[in-house]
Amino acid sequence: MTVESAQSGVAERLTVVQRSIADAMKAAGRGDVCDLVAVTKTFEAEHIRPALEAGQRIVGENRVQEAKAKWPELKAEFPDVELHLLGPLQSNKAKDAVALFDVIESVDREKIAEAIAKAGEAAGRMPKVMVQVNIGNEPQKAGVAPEDAAALVERVRALGLDVIALMAIPPVDEDPAPHFAALKAMADGLGLATSMGMSGDYETAVAQGARWVRVGSAIFGARPPLAAG
Prior knowledge:
Layout: H1 3-27, E1 35-39, H2 45-53, E2 58-61, H3 64-77, E3 82-85, H4 94-100, E4 103-107, H5 110-123, E5 128-133, H6 149-158, E6 163-168, H7 176-190, E7 193-195, H8 202-207, E8 212-215, H9 217-220
Parallel strand pairs: 1-2, 1-8, 2-3, 3-4, 4-5, 5-6, 6-7
């Protein structure tokens, strides 16, 4: 595949997703906002650039080290990009995360919030955060238990962090709609927005009131294998 065809493919798929979000918003009778987070994990800069050139400005990465390798250069080229950390954060990576990311979506315990607050204070740069909820109570999945989410939001806010939303990933083998509805109700009760929905279910998430949807493969295609290390 040529560079030109790759660029065209990404830009065209981005447009399809944007139109699908707009159609889902209209079908749901929504007059508010739902922003697309283009998930670029495992993709190299040359594969990401066509989406940025097409105007996409909110981007998500899963790993701090991977983002550190490619985003400083891309952000120099596209300084208005808003970069979201979607994957789990280890406290020893908080300094790098604060330097790189504008929003950290994966705060699931107080220790991580404390590390972000400490690193942000030292850097003079405090990212916004979301609290990740294990909405399906899956033992293998990150996130605070739904019944503990309100208490964690309160503790994170007490650290001086700006909590803007709840984030969740529903069980893959279940209808996502009830999980999205539960997260939306929980977020509404806390005065927060929601980040929910991915390539396979983002239209359902829009119908349930998502403020952000996180879409990768529907825009960029099949993911290349993740490098070791």
